[in-house]
Amino acid sequence: MKASVIGASGYGGIELIRLLSNHPDFELHAVYSSSKDGVPVTEEYPHLAEICPLPLTKIDAEEIKSTSDVVFLAVPSGAAASLAPQLAGGHAKVVDLSGDLRLKETEDYKKWYKKEPADKAFVSDAVYGLTEWNRENVKTAKVLSNPGCYPTAALLGLAPAVKNKIIDVKNIIIDAKSGVSGAGRGLSPIVHFAEMNDNFRIYKVNEHQHIPEIEQQLTWWNDETAPITFSTHLLPVSRGIMATMYAPLAKEMTTDDVHALYTETYKNDPFVRVRPSKQFPGIKEVAGSNYCDISVDVDTRTNRLVIVSVIDNLVKGAAGQAIQNANIMFGFDETSGLKGFPMYP
Amino acid sequence: MKASVIGASGYGGIELIRLLSNHPDFELHAVYSSSKDGVPVTEEYPHLAEICPLPLTKIDAEEIKSTSDVVFLAVPSGAAASLAPQLAGGHAKVVDLSGDLRLKETEDYKKWYKKEPADKAFVSDAVYGLTEWNRENVKTAKVLSNPGCYPTAALLGLAPAVKNKIIDVKNIIIDAKSGVSGAGRGLSPIVHFAEMNDNFRIYKVNEHQHIPEIEQQLTWWNDETAPITFSTHLLPVSRGIMATMYAPLAKEMTTDDVHALYTETYKNDPFVRVRPSKQFPGIKEVAGSNYCDISVDVDTRTNRLVIVSVIDNLVKGAAGQAIQNANIMFGFDETSGLKGFPMYP
Amino acid sequence: MKASVIGASGYGGIELIRLLSNHPDFELHAVYSSSKDGVPVTEEYPHLAEICPLPLTKIDAEEIKSTSDVVFLAVPSGAAASLAPQLAGGHAKVVDLSGDLRLKETEDYKKWYKKEPADKAFVSDAVYGLTEWNRENVKTAKVLSNPGCYPTAALLGLAPAVKNKIIDVKNIIIDAKSGVSGAGRGLSPIVHFAEMNDNFRIYKVNEHQHIPEIEQQLTWWNDETAPITFSTHLLPVSRGIMATMYAPLAKEMTTDDVHALYTETYKNDPFVRVRPSKQFPGIKEVAGSNYCDISVDVDTRTNRLVIVSVIDNLVKGAAGQAIQNANIMFGFDETSGLKGFPMYP
Amino acid sequence: MKASVIGASGYGGIELIRLLSNHPDFELHAVYSSSKDGVPVTEEYPHLAEICPLPLTKIDAEEIKSTSDVVFLAVPSGAAASLAPQLAGGHAKVVDLSGDLRLKETEDYKKWYKKEPADKAFVSDAVYGLTEWNRENVKTAKVLSNPGCYPTAALLGLAPAVKNKIIDVKNIIIDAKSGVSGAGRGLSPIVHFAEMNDNFRIYKVNEHQHIPEIEQQLTWWNDETAPITFSTHLLPVSRGIMATMYAPLAKEMTTDDVHALYTETYKNDPFVRVRPSKQFPGIKEVAGSNYCDISVDVDTRTNRLVIVSVIDNLVKGAAGQAIQNANIMFGFDETSGLKGFPMYP
């Protein structure tokens, strides 16, 4: 199956190249960029020397949709709103990694992204690809909207608790921390090495565009969910997200009870690892892999549940989950091309 | 005034040496270590070559209390419980940086530190040196218990809100992140560079010994305070703490209202900087300095207040605040020896 | 083919596990450790949760040599000297990653490693596995001595120049820099995160045990080679080596001439990438992969050749090259199991 | 004495602000920037909140030269060539931190900097401020040219060997490594945190503009000096330079002999610390301070001398040495305002 990557000069794009190049069922067919027509991808990314001979090519939606079996759209939010509809409806299935097709209420998109939304009906038809919780719809998706990195970490951590109503969904607090690649390759003093090194920042306080995405999914699971508090921080690491989540228990449960629920919930999910009680994951323990590792702990003093969830933001938070979804869309094994181990240390 | 440092081979100890060596009012008189009798401090710390000729000397409480005007006790928790009483009661004033004299309920110490507590009456007399909130008692203290690094960041951030009852003190959540020096110089795979680099960990979930210290102070300010949820994470940086704190507002207030309250509260405190609305501090912006920088933001969607507080764990969180307290104990200017700027970048 | 790993709790060991677990031709059969009998490998390395169910098992040479087809020996230098001979001579082929079988002059081993050498005849029979330059002998090796990480980077960079006599082999200077994993998992203040972070150190000046290994190979290529100067530094990164090498040109050549020689030399080597003139590799551009990237530049002012060579010390400098050699020893494709891309960023 | 800083929005500029703000003899009078007229310096650098109330002001040479006693010019190379002459000749003494006044042969400037040089006579009159080796001329300087960061580290390390003719000055190789702040605050993918983190790069191979500066000084000391080989690398740290230097010995000397020579040479220099034999400095051991730490080692196998020299590129390599020179120009104690200890860890 021929796979193309649009937006190949960004971090999501090159991670797709890394994973697709060793995929047994997809063949990396072509890589596109809006701004670098004709430039070899190795000029932007010398680490691909001799292993990715493809040139970056100008985006031609008609040509792409007829020559590719699947298109991964890894352009910035805002660009996909118009591009995805052009790519859809033909031969190619579309997997969109931007935020443009995630919010069913397009007014929410306008408010949080401060950009023009995609066509509401088109967004409505796109399948939200939080794989572990939406496999049936993913199977038949023609246009798939891949979840954001933060929402992936947060939602996989919260899902068993919210769906099973063991926590008070009116009091969920998510304190999330991300590696710098999550901010993209754009340049600013914030990401200057000399200033981010040995530093740690909080940003977009109470304003992050992933808030409505998380709330939308939580509400689908439990419509009593109230607005969440969600904070985002920048870690001095290249990759990785940890979401530390807090909510009051709605039922009397021990750590072991909650742990058993989580273990049972994810027992057939190849990429979710529920850690033993009292063992908590570091982000490096999933680096480079498609795993989401989760720990839970009940604080008996406060009757609050603490949930910790880690992913690699570029893999399970972007390119890896996109391929996991594509695998399902094409009937391949869900883990195809994603069996790489975390790189440690 | 002659200042001595006990426990000079730890990170708190050498930071005291750095700050005391350029202090206009204290003279660094002697440095002590339980295990390194006769070893020049430069053997442990070559960065002190030619500028700290002192040898590490065996601890002799009688000699120390008679020859020093002030003793900074920077030994690990557990060791100060017996040592502090030996050093007290003589000529020297004692500033203890360990956790041994902080918890007035010595049963709490036993429970959280899992060690034998110091004598309850002795602990009772020790003055808790959260400088900005206890200056009057610090002035006359003979034995001062210096706050922990996490409690300093958390309490300075929470104080105006808790004292002025603008938040619901039954629902305080503190998500704290610390640089690796906070874990001390002891060796373990956790602090091995190859494994901590590019990593981020959560640890001691719901079990950190700073929990009762924070609760004790909050209760003094507002006795309705319920147990807090307090999480600690390890950042891949050498120094710095950020505490991100969440609580429901108890009154209707805007960000500007809360900001005004904080600004007013700390207007005369030379080491607390309340940042302008919508500007949030990174930990590097206080590195090497005694500043605590604080930002506040009201989330109108959830009616929760988010408070962000950053310090350098070795300065305002340890050696710097200890010297700030000693300045007050001796009638010096509170900022004496602490005017160094943050080192940036 | 059944592959076993001895010394599986070290960094070389777990990298072997990572690479062998996705190898199409080898099956990871068992993992051994001298000190952790019965401990699941996931207890030491939680990132292997659910993907490496093997327990660490006590080393039993007789059992191992009869049940494995190939044994990777990743124990510290000193331990392999006695263990390798016990493992050899049976069914299993042996690939030794320690330094114990590299120096044909066992007196040199004694001098530089300050340990007892292995039996001289045994060492003599071991094939030195600098793959690109010794494929014929590797093919038939029963006991293979895998090169050191620094020697791999240095020798691949120097080989074309030394063999073709374009540089003065009496004046070779190698300035090498390594990530911290190269120092192993042993604990010391040197590798404490708080002290290695934002730091850079030089160590073992003029005393590194890889010096005789490099000289031995250079002399095989050109017996006029004089003792080299070789310096080693520790970089604040987890992985990666750069060797920057200097030697006077022995012939009049331009950068383009030298570049052409290098390109021609390595044109059939899948894991050596000679970079275009004026493009120099960063260590991150090979991270996680088996590549060695090389650049050359002639300084016309001084008539010296500068050669830059980078590898991932745990892959091409250890586990990757070991597997590359094993592939050849068993007649598999040289790149089998090693097609993973560098992980960037 | 009133001190002004021009180019205050760069890293050299804010380091001057940090050091001048606590200087007992200079008062920070005003800060200037070519592009940020009226912007508070705290807007660019929030770490200066409440401690540097000055606004960045447009550069007006006439006003500056009449109101300041000393002007520190920290603008990029190229800008000082025209600005320095405008500032000179009036009341204010000028300390230029750019490279524009360093190369007495202005043709060399043109060749290496690829910019228009300053007036040759003006450059000729500027005193090269390698403090330890030019104090007499510094005393009377009206216009001082502060050395580059790499040259400072390299020259202080080489000086005793070159001046005393103990090394072959026709075969000097300098392998230098710098923290990222040395590249300035300008943005590029090279300094993007996600790509520089866990990375190490070599750059400007055989083309660095500090080459002629080093050669000029070495030739002044020994006119037989041949062109040097000088390589520059970028370390994933914010600050610090290490120069590792190699040259054949010209005389028979032991490490102890060379060590004695270095110790004797620098015995009266407060900022040069010659380390004990076999002890080598890490860059963190001088971070934040004006020290240059030096170690020497003779390799008896090759008869080469290895010299290691470390500085903080922003202090001894820029702002610190500039102030050290200004102290001498004004008759203050050489160490005035520079007594800060290294910040460790």
Automatic annotation (TrEMBL), chains A, B, C, D:
Family: Belongs to the NAGSA dehydrogenase family. Type 1 subfamily.
Locations listed in the record: Cytoplasm
Reaction catalyzed: N-acetyl-L-glutamate 5-semialdehyde + phosphate + NADP(+) = N-acetyl-L-glutamyl 5-phosphate + NADPH + H(+)
InterPro entries according to UniProt: AGPR, AGPR_AS, AGPR_dimerisation_dom, AGPR_type-1, NAD(P)-bd_dom_sf, Semialdehyde_DH_NAD-bd
Name this protein carries in UniProt: N-acetyl-gamma-glutamyl-phosphate reductase
Entry keyword NADP: yes
Keywords annotated in UniProt: Amino-acid biosynthesis, Arginine biosynthesis, Cytoplasm, NADP, Oxidoreductase
Pathway: Amino-acid biosynthesis; L-arginine biosynthesis; N(2)-acetyl-L-ornithine from L-glutamate: step 3/4
Gene3D superfamilies, alphabetized: Dihydrodipicolinate Reductase, domain 2, NAD(P)-binding Rossmann-like Domain
This protein's GO CC annotations: cytoplasm
Gene Ontology biological-process entries: L-arginine biosynthetic process
Listed SMART domains: Semialdhyde_dh
Pfam short name (any one): Semialdhyde_dh
